[in-house]
Amino acid sequence: MTELTFTLRENSIDSLNEALDKFQQGQDGNVRALKFSILFTAQFIELLLKQYLISIDPFLVYTKCFREIQKKAKTDKVDIRQAYETLKADGFDFNALVKGDPNPHTVALDDALGFARLEMCSITGGELVDNDFADDISWLKQLRNNIEHFEFTLTAQEVRLCIGRIVRAAIDFCETFSLMDLADEIGKERFHTFEMLADEYTQHRTEAKAEMKRGESDAFRGLRPKEWQFVEWNVYRCDACGEHTMVPDDESATGYKCKMPLCGNEESEDIEVPCDVCGVPCANGDMQYWDEGLPNVCPQCNSHSD
Ligand SMILES: [Zn+2]
Ligand SMILES: [Zn+2]
Known about the structure:
The protein is mainly alpha-helical. Among the domains are: about 5-60 and about 105-200; about 275-305, no CATH class. It is built from twelve helices and four strands. The structure holds zinc ion (2 copies). One zinc ion binds near residues 240, 260, 263 and 265. One zinc ion (ZN) binds near residues 275, 277, 278, 300 and 301.
């Protein structure tokens, strides 16, 4: 392993560890920490992509060499990957470009990403061109570039979900190109956070739980204990995703909404409605439809009618 490879690897893991620490703090309600998580995640990805370039050819990571390849791609009207192959086959001396420079400049995230996308296309015949990965990276990059200039207008959840997608894509990326096993590299203290992010469903559940908790404290805020009984706070099973994540929501037509990210369903057979005959609340899935005037009749009243 060259010294640069070693440094990149160490630094990328450090960045990931920092990103995870800040992420956890962000999850615990510190929005400022989330901002730093974005910066460290972007840095982690940048270093990871450089490691990837080095794994193909150590010279690829240097800006001077990369520019030469881009020049060639332009003249030959081919993509940078093909241009690189041609130069290499022609015995082009990349070493001469950086020789004598003790600290040559290395490529930016976009260049590395551009090369990785082409490479991914070629290995998998275009199957694995993970556009979402690239889109998430550009989104994160934009966010990083603007973070100091504009107010944090995104919801904290959007940011957390994006970081989760990037971490999952990075795990796949490391596997595809045999770069390293991230789970083995990160610090023990962050393993819980890493594991949660590594699985999309687990992350979504964590987000749902946090939303539910927030809704519940909002509903009870400022009330005295003897008023608690008047608050209708029920948790129902979502008919769409099957999770017990449906809680009261002011904007929902049914009064309830599932808090799982990407779900947001408002229907559950478990939501209680009052019986149109006796007025006792019952799960709407158990109600019988009698007629237009009595759409919801509870099992009790229904059995008396026989
Ligand atoms: Zn749901
Ligand atoms: Zn009834």
